[in-house]
């Protein structure tokens, strides 16, 4: 079987699994889990085989014209280079782990058949984006992911939080997709084709007429899909969906699509220095702002959500300094440890009965209840904090090294300003990332107070997956010497300066947070458990309404009130309240956009009802009144008719006399 045929089967198998699951899931429940797991696992094996055959050498290209358009053709095309081959393997690994994990996590959920089918469709769409060699076909997968995210985030549709989050995710990403679509058409108009290879050849020849405009339009779609400032606000709210969905969206699909798209078409963006500076500023604000917000969150899933936004900022920062190898390296590394973090968080939530770190900090012995989650989450948090020798250290240092390379003027085609912006923001974020990772670990696993509830061992399908993902989280960084052969050949090895400075800042962040925790813990010992209560103003976490929980939450609906055990409050001080609310961006958007749109809608409704409908109603009312008047005159009395005729004759005669007299 040829490599092209294998590559076609990779996205096709999950799609067929999704279609079969939707058609047969309700009728034959016994087939639901095999249809969810087996096609995705098979697609993973085929993706690995495609990667081995591709081997980082010359890209695999194949195309057939989909339909004649009369102008720019649309083709079913494949373009598989080293980047695409490895990203497809990442998607397959994470999707397979999520499907296996979900068989235990949602085993009692009556909506599991539709959930599993949507996850398979989601996976198929992302694989289509990764392998596609035509921008219009890529757009199909891009939009299918948006639709799937709407349904998956709103899986618990009976809760208002899930309904609002799914709608918000759909609308915000679609807001970015409008200029994205315009940018694709503008790019195809300049290149004369939607084929990726043709577009890249056009850029290489310098025949792209409007590089800055095209790049900025495309960046709007990337910002929405990859949750970059200012279109990042949908991602923390998307935590209302099931935890495995969060792992899939944050690690390998949806948000990774934007970064991958820029990496694939990086020469288009590099053709405009202004676009690279805009991308660098966007990455810097995203990195630093999300890290501060993560340090103030109480909901464990929202901490990880803001962490994802920040790590995506590192990836876009690497792209802003023109190094797509570092960006995709961090994408692969982050995919492993972030999927692991979300899945371990799901085990932790299941065991504790709450999402709240404040509640977990008052549960003694939680680490003993979930030892698998404890050890694997520790590995994942060390990778997230970029502590050597874990994988996050190597990939994050590759980004910082690329930024240093550009800032010192060694990248002639990239503005040095972009390098300095990314480097400074990246180092600051390294400090903050270690701080919130340490805070999460301390609050989740070092609680003091009542014994944690014992709900028995977690399903094997959930715990086994954790150890599978722990391996790349620990060891993937060792591939740093091999990956350049798959990418552009540029070294991804850490540089001495950024390694020392970055690791030093990470250690400082962790130690300072530990010291703050020791101080706040002594204060928390004086505060009764009842002080931790629901925060009605949203300043804190939201308890996840998980259908898998066969038990009531051990501490009720616990969210973050003013918990004195939280070191984040001490570290952030007066900034904590604003950081916990995401710096009030949602409130600002409500004032600037939502309320004006709602006011305009009310005005349109008023004009429609009171003005337009008045004329419509009048057009029907006038003939009705005239008909009523004529009907009243039709009495059927002959004497009345003769009297009216005589009266009319007299009136006409008088009128004729008056007219004749006036004429004389």
From TrEMBL:
Protein topology in the membrane: Multi-pass membrane protein
GO BP field: ATP synthesis coupled electron transport; electron transport coupled proton transport
TM regions (residue ranges): 6-24, 36-56, 76-100, 112-131, 137-157, 169-188, 208-224, 245-263, 269-296, 303-321, 327-352, 373-394, 414-438, 459-483, 495-517, 641-662
A GO MF term: NADH dehydrogenase (ubiquinone) activity
Keyword Ubl conjugation listed: no
Localization terms from the record: Endomembrane system; Membrane
Main subcellular localisation: membrane
Keyword list, A-Z: Membrane, Oxidoreductase, Transmembrane, Transmembrane helix
Residue ranges occupied by any NADH-Ubiquinone oxidoreductase (complex I) chain 5 N-terminal domain in the UniProt entry: 68-115
EC number of the protein: 1.6.5.-
NADH:quinone oxidoreductase/Mrp antiporter transmembrane domain ranges (all copies): 132-404
InterPro entries given in the database record: NADHpl_OxRdtase_5_subgr (IPR018393), ND/Mrp_TM (IPR001750), NU5C-like (IPR003945), Proton_antipo_N (IPR001516)
GO CC entries: endomembrane system; membrane
PANTHER family documented for this protein: NADH-UBIQUINONE OXIDOREDUCTASE CHAIN 5
NCBIfam families according to UniProt: NDH_I_L
Protein name according to UniProt: NADH-quinone oxidoreductase subunit L
């Amino acid at each position: 079987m040829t490599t092209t045929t294998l590559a076609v089967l990779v996205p096709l198998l999950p799609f067929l699994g999704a279609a079969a699951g939707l058609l047969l899931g309700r009728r034959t429940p016994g087939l639901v889990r095999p249809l969810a797991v087996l096609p995705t696992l098979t697609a993973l094996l085929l993706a690995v085989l495609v990667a081995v055959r591709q081997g980082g050498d010359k890209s695999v290209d194949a195309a057939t014209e989909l339909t004649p358009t009369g102008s720019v053709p649309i083709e079913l095309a494949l373009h598989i280079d080293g980047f695409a081959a490895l990203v497809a393997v990442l998607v397959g690994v994470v999707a397979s782990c999520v499907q296996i994990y979900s068989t235990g996590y949602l085993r009692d959920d009556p909506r599991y058949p539709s959930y599993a089918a949507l996850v398979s469709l989601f996976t198929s769409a992302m694989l289509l984006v990764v392998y596609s060699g035509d921008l219009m076909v890529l757009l199909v997968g891009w939009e299918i992911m948006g639709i799937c995210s709407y349904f998956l985030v709103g899986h618990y549709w009976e809760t208002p939080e899930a309904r609002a989050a799914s709608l918000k995710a759909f609308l915000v990403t679609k807001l970015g997709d409008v200029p994205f679509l315009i940018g694709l058409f503008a790019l195809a108009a300049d290149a004369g084709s939607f084929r990726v290879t043709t577009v890249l050849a056009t850029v290489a020849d310098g025949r792209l007429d409007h590089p800055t405009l095209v790049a900025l339009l495309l960046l709007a779609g990337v910002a929405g899909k990859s949750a970059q400032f200012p279109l990042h606000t949908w991602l923390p709210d998307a935590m209302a969906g099931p935890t495995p969905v969060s792992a899939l969206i944050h690690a390998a699909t949806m948000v990774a699509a934007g970064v991958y798209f820029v990496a694939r078409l990086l020469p288009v963006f590099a053709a405009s220095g202004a676009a690279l500076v805009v991308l660098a500023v966007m990455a810097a604000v995203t990195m630093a702002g999300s890290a501060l917000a993560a340090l103030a969150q109480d909901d464990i899933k929202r901490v990880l959500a803001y962490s994802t936004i920040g790590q995506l900022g590192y990836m876009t920062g690497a792209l802003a300094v023109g190094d797509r190898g570092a960006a995709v390296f961090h994408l692969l590394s982050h995919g492993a440890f972030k999927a692991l973090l979300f899945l371990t968080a799901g085990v932790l939530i299941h065991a504790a009965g709450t999402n709240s770190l404040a509640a977990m900090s008052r549960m003694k012995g939680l680490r003993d209840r979930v030892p698998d989650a404890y050890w694997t989450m520790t590995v994942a948090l060390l990778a997230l904090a970029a502590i050597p020798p874990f994988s996050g250290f190597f990939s994050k240092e590759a980004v910082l090294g690329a930024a240093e390379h550009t800032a010192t003027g060694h990248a002639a085609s990239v503005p040095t300003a972009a390098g300095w912006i990314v480097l400074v923001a990246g180092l600051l974020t390294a400090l903050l990332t270690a701080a919130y990772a340490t805070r999460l670990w301390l609050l989740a696993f070092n609680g003091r107070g009542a014994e944690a509830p014992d709900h028995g061992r977690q399903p094997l399908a959930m715990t086994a997956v954790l150890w599978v993902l722990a391996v790349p989280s620990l060891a993937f960084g060792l591939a740093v010497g091999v990956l350049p052969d798959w990418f552009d050949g540029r070294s991804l090895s850490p540089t001495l300066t950024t390694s020392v400075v970055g690791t030093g800042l990470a250690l400082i962040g962790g130690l300072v947070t530990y010291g703050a925790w020791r101080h706040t813990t002594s204060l928390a010992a004086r505060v009764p458990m009842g002080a931790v209560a629901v925060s009605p103003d949203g300043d804190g976490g939201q308890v996840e309404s998980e259908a898998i929980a066969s038990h009531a939450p051990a501490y009720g609906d616990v969210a973050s009130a003013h918990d004195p055990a939280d070191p984040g409050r001490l570290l952030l001080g007066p900034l904590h309240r604003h950081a916990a609310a995401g710096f009030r961006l949602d409130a600002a958007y409500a004032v600037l956009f939502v309320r004006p749109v709602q006011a305009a809608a009310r005005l349109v409704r008023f004009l429609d009802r009171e003005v337009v409908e008045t004329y419509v109603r009048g057009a029907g009312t006038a003939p009705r009144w005239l008909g009523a008047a004529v009907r009243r005159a039709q009495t059927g009395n002959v004497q009345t008719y003769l009297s009216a005729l005589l009266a009319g004759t007299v009136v006409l005669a008088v009128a004729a006399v008056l007219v004749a007299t006036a004429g004389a």
